[in-house]
Amino acid sequence: MLLASFLGVVMGLVLGLTGAGGGILAVPALVLGLGLTMTQAAPVALFAVGSAAAVGAIDGLRHGLVRYRAAMLIALLGAMFSPVGIYVAHQLPEKILMILFSLLMVMVAWRMLRRERQDAGPSDHGHASWGQKNCMLDQQTGRFSWTAKCTATLAALGAVTGVVSGLLGVGGGFLIVPAFKQLTDVQMRGIVATSLMVISLISAIGVIGAFQAGVTIDRLGAAFIVASVAGMVIGRKVSAKVPARALQIGFAGVCLMVAVSMLLQA
Which GO terms describe its cellular component (predicted)? Predict the structure, then answer.
């Protein structure tokens, strides 16, 4: 129980510090730390990540940073496609799932380590006057201009996020954050807040689906979930005091170590 609580706090802390990527550590913590199988770990991880992300999303809503219409569209498509991922996960051998998850962690680590160009962008409230992207903020209202291209882009992102969420038990922040940076002109604070809302919605839907399929969460899982929320609160409070680049390098290093451990176990 103590180990489950410790691992939950660490996962929530990393989620709060990195904004969205830390949730990917939930499954390895449950598999390597508590001895669960991938299929057992997925619903517990989704519940923990979703609960912790909801705390951050509520904070983002209070500060007017969440693009809630975009978040709801992505989550809706994610909900529709999440059962596809859950079905595929139950058809694949445990070793294949662990290998897929390890490769995913390597990809996340690579993205974290890669230095990106610092482009001058708009504020989170829509003063965009730079490069055209798929989804642009209206300069008068500060909201998205809902063109067909923008709607299709966010819907496709939701579908992919839903499949990966169901398959590997992750919230999808590692997909949503870089996709938002590439495809929209929202700045980072708004991206993180919107991502946390999407993660909380998709995770909640995934957990409901798992419960309907007969999955149960034991006391260890419950302790992990409660501790992850506490870690998220702490992470949000100290995130502004930690250099962003140091966080990226540290998180990438952890991802690589965990990926190697999961590959060896597979």
Answer: plasma membrane
184: left (phi > 0), else alpha (psi -120 to 50), else beta?
beta
List Cβ neighbours of 210 (8 Å cut-off, separation of 6 or more).
Answer: 42, 43, 46, 86
C-alpha to C-alpha distance for 151 and 212, rounded to whole angstroms: 31
pTM of the model: 0.75
- In this prediction, residue 132 carries a pLDDT of 65
pLDDT of residue 151: 93
* pLDDT tens readout for residues 75-122: 999 888 988 988 898 898 988 988 988 888 888 788 777 755 444 444
Task: Please tell me the predicted confidence (pLDDT) of residue 240.
Answer: 67
| 175 touches 81 (CB < 8 A) | no
Contact between 258 and 28 under an 8 Å Cβ cutoff? The reply is yes
Taking each helix axis from N to C terminus, what angle separates 148-168 and 38-62, rounded to the nearest 10 degrees? 140
How many Cβ atoms sit within 10 Å of the Cβ of residue 145? 14
Q: Which residues pair with 184 in a beta bridge?
A: 135
Amino acid in position 210: A
Q: What's the length of the chain?
A: 266
Rounded Cα distance, 18 and 255, in Å: 13
In the chain, which residues have pLDDT < 50?
117-131
